[in-house]
Each structure stands twice: as structure tokens, then as C-alpha cells.
């Protein structure tokens, strides 16, 4: 069972990654159990509730080599769009973007990161 109150179960033998970043960072709690991240060219489902400082992802789809090398799980990118994330949270993209905290690595195509 995963998340506050053990809200979601996963299959025996599943691989989980606990990522730094939770609702204190603007990952809306409503995404828990519905949202996803992106790593190694794959969508990785969020499992359980989003915690204050962490979010759990099911990384079972990754190979042993990919799991060993895993350093980052992206929560917004070309494949996981702001509007998709907003849909998981039952809101609009503007709320997602304005909720993001200051602990994220940001990379802008033009201009400097703030």
C-alpha cells in the first residue's frame, strides 16, 4: 500500500521511486493516483497520495539498467503537458504553472531561469 493512509495498492514485485517534490512544491494533491511523470522515454504513473515533500512513481516499466541510472523524473515536458497535468488535478494549466515552487530545476528555451 502506498501514500498517506495507504490509499493505493501496487502489484507484488513493483518497483517504486520516491521523488523529492510534493504539494509544498506545487504538485497538486488531486493528481495523486492519477498523474504521471516522465523518464527514460516512458510515462511513469504516480501512485498513492502526493505528500508534502514527496511523490511516488511506479517505475516497474523501466529496465534494471534504466532504474539504476534514474536520476530525474520530469513532471512537465513536451510529453506530459501542463494541460494534461491540469486534467489530472481537475483544474486549469494556469493553476499548475502558478503553483510550482522554487525547488525545481527550470530550463527555458530562451531567457534565463529565475
Q: How would you explain this protein's 3D organization?
A:
With 114 residues, the chain is α+β, with helices and mostly antiparallel strands. It is built from three helices and four strands; from the N terminus they run ββββααα. Strands 1-4-3-2 form a four-stranded antiparallel beta sheet, with no helix packed on it. α2 packs across α3. The longest helix is centred in the C-terminal third of the chain and has 8 residues, at 82-89. The protein is globular and about 40 Å long. The relative contact order is 0.21. The mean pLDDT is 90.
Write a concise keyword list for the protein shown above:
114 residues
Largest sheet, described in full? 4 strands, antiparallel
First-last Cα distance:
38 Å
- Residue ranges: pLDDT <50 for 5 or more in a row? none
Instruction: Please give the radius of gyration in angstroms.
Output: 14 Å
Helix content: 10-25%
Overall average pLDDT = 90
Q: What sort of overall outline do the alpha carbons produce when their principal axes are compared?
A: globular
In DSSP terms (H or I, runs of 4 or more residues), the helix count works out at: 3
> What fraction of the residues are assigned to beta strands by DSSP?
15-25%
Structure class = alpha+beta
**Numbering strands along the chain, what is their spatial order in the largest sheet?**
1-4-3-2
Secondary structure tally: strands: 4
Amino acid at each position: 500500500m502506498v501514500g498517506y493512509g495507504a490509499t493505493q495498492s501496487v502489484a507484488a514485485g513493483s518497483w517504486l521511486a520516491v521523488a523529492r517534490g510534493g504539494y509544498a512544491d506545487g504538485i497538486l494533491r488531486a493528481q495523486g493516483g492519477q498523474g504521471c511523470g516522465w523518464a527514460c522515454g516512458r510515462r511513469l504513473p504516480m501512485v498513492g497520495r502526493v505528500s508534502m515533500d514527496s511523490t511516488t512513481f511506479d517505475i516497474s516499466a523501466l529496465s534494471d539498467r534504466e532504474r539504476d541510472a534514474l536520476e530525474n523524473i520530469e513532471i512537465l515536458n513536451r510529453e506530459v503537458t501542463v494541460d494534461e497535468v491540469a486534467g489530472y488535478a481537475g483544474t486549469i494549466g494556469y493553476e499548475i504553472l502558478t503553483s510550482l515552487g522554487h525547488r525545481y530545476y527550470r530550463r527555458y528555451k530562451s531567457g534565463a531561469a529565475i
